[in-house]
Hints:
Layout: H1 3-20, E1 42-48, H2 59-63, E2 71-77, E3 81-86, E4 91-93, E5 99-100, H3 103-108, E6 116-122, E7 127-132, H4 133-145
Antiparallel strand pairs: 1-6, 2-3, 2-4, 3-7, 4-5, 6-7
Helix pairs in contact: 1-4
Amino acid sequence: MNLVEALAEFEAASTTKRATGTPRVDGLPVARPPERVRRGTSRYAFTTIDVHGRLGDRSLVRLLNWLPGTSLKPTVLNDRIIVLRRSPGTATVLKLGHIRLPAAIRHRCQLHAGDGLLLTTSAARDLLVVCTTAALDQALRAYVRGESP
């Protein structure tokens, strides 16, 4: 079951519950005051990967203050999530500030040119997490089903 099917089932179940629950009363919408959202320390970017393994977005690399030539050590989790840390390794920050993932990592994670990736980092950590769309789909399906991480 893909994410769209899971959401469709969730919506159908919600509609059934609403139909059998209290009747809906139509009327003027009531404005609610906006909830104050506390901004977390995590930062996100969505990017694509090119044919040479370069990640298009450089904003989080700049936020981490990773300069060109910085050596990065990639670690792969479940063939869907890549964690990059500043340490001697097989990935580097290129001259223009892009990160290029090694071919072995791209093959293991089944990444191809044009694939979308979610990048995330925290100001308190010196690492960058790269999530494939397969990892995002899995997390969203679990969320829709109400499973805890």
